[in-house]
Amino acid sequence: MRTRIAAVAAAASLTLFAGAAMAQDLPQLRVAMSQDADALDPTLSRTYVQRVATLNMCDGLFTYNDKLAVVPRLATSYEWTDSKTLVVKLRPGVTFHDGTPVDAAAVKYTLERHANMSGSARKGDVASLDHVDVVDPLTVRFVLKAPDVVFLSQLAVRAGTLVSPKAAEAAGKDFALNPVCAGPYKFVERVAQDRIVIDRVPDYWDAANYHFSRVTFRPVTDSTVRLANLQAGAVDVNIEIPPIEMDKVRKDPKLKLVAFDGLGYTGISFNLARTPTGQTPLGTDARVRRAFELALDRAALVQVVYNGAHAITAQPLPPTSPFYSPGVAPTTRDPAMARALLAEAGVKMPYQVVLTVINQPDQVQLAEVIQSMAAEAGFAVKIEAMEFVASLDAAEKGNTAAYLVGWTGRPDADGNIRDLLHTGAPVNWVGYKSEAFDGLIDQARSIADMSQRRALYAKAFGILHQDQPILYLYAPRWIFGMSAKLEGFEPVADGMLRLNGVTITR
Questions:
Q1: Quick one: 409 exposed, middle or buried, by C-beta within 10 A (0-12, 13-18, 19+)?
Q2: What pLDDT does 25 receive?
Q3: Which of 188, 258, 346, 506 gives 480 a disulfide partner, CB atoms 3.0 to 4.6 angstroms apart?
Q4: With 80 as the cut, is the pLDDT of residue 192 above it?
Q5: Which CATH number is associated with domain 7-57+183-261+479-504?
Q6: Which CATH number fits domain 62-167: 3.40.630.30, 3.40.50.300, 3.40.50.1950, 3.90.76.10?
Q7: Banded pLDDT at 24 (limits 50, 70, 90)
Q8: Residues 262, 48: contact at Cβ < 8 Å?
Q9: Alpha-carbon span 466 to 97, nearest angstrom
Q10: Which residues contact 293 (CB under 8 A, 6 or more apart)?
């Protein structure tokens, strides 16, 4: 059954969001998120909500504009002097929130931290980096091991996000408890499962474009409560409106809806015998995983749970991506063929699958529909709902057999597959190993020609569809609900809440 929160819970949450106004001229902004973030450390972080909460606190060398073009932030310009050497000029006069300079030495420190820190989630992002040279205080040179057309785009996401060397060295493994970066907002406090608070930096180099004195992020897993808070004016932005609630936002004159295409996917990641939990027919025999795909009707799943708002996909990209391969299409549901594959694999039916899901209503409902469909094809699905960060930790440790989870995506196809599926990659929690797949995406990373890259990815996606380390289901759209008094927000397909130029009338 789908969990429902009583009205008293919504009322309590409304009270929780109400707080004394800061005695400042600029208004505050209050943002509701669907989950709590993981570590507030650019080197260790893995989650979308973490990046939403820290994007305006932790600036990077580059970012994306609304056309997904790479544009400078802490950098002012860049030049490829040859196929393996990228020279970046830095913005003068910029400091971290502790007053130390944002200079070439800080860039070198951060990139080496990404590459070498224990538990770093950025190792794959900077795997092609050989070394970093400090040319002068405002010039840094990146020297790669081999040509890599993806490297610059990585610097526009998490890999290019800078941290204060002084603060990082002093805090060590506890840096996430008090992150010190160089963005338009600085860290104030975090209370787990309750709030993350950041305050405006008056002397930021572009402070004139940031119009909120304080921004507070609140994790609320129940979508009904999040919407109630938005409707009551207790929050100004809800970054994840379920499709079934879109009309409620559209019809409310106090609100407005902003919906736009994303870059990622939602799917089921299988443990391919990486740990004892995965040493089962599901983890060791691709026929069992292909049977699970045949048990499902992607279009029906999206229609039932999301009113058809999302696009179905059988590859790690949305159909709107320039790298999308039409030849790798979703398989038509066929329970009889699924049963035949299970019989061929020699498993006893009904075959039990433990499906770990994030404990929020739409994901639990999605799992329940999957459970119902799979039962007709010889599977007995047991649903295990977990808090978001706890589920990530379980997957990382190999304690999940099948994990329903999404990846928010990156503009380049490499960003949706390398870290998760290349042999030995830092987020390859499924334990996938394929020399053919690795070879194709390695080759694609070294070629600038778009048509050649697209052809290589098409072959790679075909291998994934055969092996099914991840059963791709659909490509979500971003659906934000906002106060009608909010102006200036420019949607970008990465789903970030960029606050430059955003204003609100109280």
A1: buried
A2: 87
A3: 258
A4: yes
A5: 3.40.190.10
A6: 3.90.76.10
A7: low
A8: no
A9: 49
A10: 331, 468, 471
